[in-house]
Task: inverse folding
C-alpha cells in the first residue's frame, strides 16, 4: 500500500479507536462493566493497528495486543515493551467479556466489576497514548531512520 493509503486507513482505525474508548467510558457509567472492558480492549487494539499501518509494519488479522505491540521496531518497540502488562490485561478481556461459555456458564454481565472496567480503560489509555504518538509522528513525516520498519 502507498504511504498515503496507509495513513488514510490508519486515521480510520484511530477514529474508531476513539469511539470505542468513549463507548467504554459510557458503559462504565451505565455499570455495564463487561462491555466497558471489551470496548477498552477494542480501543487499544484499533489504535495499535493504526500506528502499525502508519509505520508500514505488516500484521496478521489477530486480536492480541501483546503480539501486535511486539511488532513495533526500535524505540517504539521498547516503549510498548514497558506496556506489556497492560497489553496482557486487555488480551484476557477479548473473549470472556462476551461469551457465557467462556466463564463456565456465568454471564459476563454478572462476572465483571467496576474495578476491572476502570483498570481496562486505564490500560487502554496508556497503550493508545503510545500508539497515538507514533501515528502523529508518521503523519508529520517524521520517523525515518531508527524506527523505520525492517525490510525483509
Result:
Amino acid at each position: 500500500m502507498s504511504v498515503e493509503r496507509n495513513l488514510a486507513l490508519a486515521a480510520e482505525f484511530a477514529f474508531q479507536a476513539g469511539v470505542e474508548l468513549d463507548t467504554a467510558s459510557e458503559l462504565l457509567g451505565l455499570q455495564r462493566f463487561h462491555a466497558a472492558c471489551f470496548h477498552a480492549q477494542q480501543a487499544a487494539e484499533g489504535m495499535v493497528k493504526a500506528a502499525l499501518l502508519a509505520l508500514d509494519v505488516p500484521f496478521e488479522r489477530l486480536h492480541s495486543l501483546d503480539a501486535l505491540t511486539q511488532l513495533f521496531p526500535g524505540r517504539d518497540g521498547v516503549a510498548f515493551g514497558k506496556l506489556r502488562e497492560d497489553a496482557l490485561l486487555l488480551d484476557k478481556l477479548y473473549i470472556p467479556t462476551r461469551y457465557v461459555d467462556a466463564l463456565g456458564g456465568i454471564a459476563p454481565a454478572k462476572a465483571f466489576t467496576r474495578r476491572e472496567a476502570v483498570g481496562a480503560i486505564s490500560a487502554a489509555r496508556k497503550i493508545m497514548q503510545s500508539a497515538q504518538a507514533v501515528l502523529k509522528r508518521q503523519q508529520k513525516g517524521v520517523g525515518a531512520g531508527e524506527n523505520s520498519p525492517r525490510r525483509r
Summary: Confidence is low (pLDDT under 50) at residues 142-152.
